[in-house]
Amino acid sequence: MRSEEIEIRTGGTERVVDLTRRIAEFCRDGQDGLVNVWVPHATAGVAVIETGAGSDDDLLEALRTLLPGDDRWSHRHGSAGHGRDHVLPAIIAPSMSVPVLGGRMALGTWQSVCLVDTNVDNAVRTVRLSFLAG
């Protein structure tokens, strides 16, 4: 097994950040196996989604509908509505594994692996990649 940690700067806005290129570079050794993507944060997750055609914005809008940024949340530190960010990983998991064949992720044509971050209070995220050879 080998691992790598990458840092993602999300800024102070809700974001869907495409990680596919960075993960593909990590997997380029030609081996078959699994790549695990892990976000060690209580307020972010990873998802497979089409990007660039509006789906990433649609996902953020859906999350705003499901998890409104208002004062209904019991968890109340940080900016207004921050409690919703702590519920996000129950909906968008903090990890996933993707099959790798011949050093390439076995994603569908329009699939991208993305960091989903609604927490505007934390502008820097860590993503841990681990490759398990088959």
From TrEMBL:
Do you know which InterPro entries this protein is assigned to? UPF0047_YjbQ-like, YjbQ-like_sf
- Per the UniProt record, which residue ranges are transmembrane? none
Pfam families, sorted: YjbQ
- In this entry, which stretches build a coiled coil? none
UniProt family annotation: Belongs to the UPF0047 family.
Protein name, per record = Secondary thiamine-phosphate synthase enzyme
Protein's organism: Pseudonocardia oroxyli
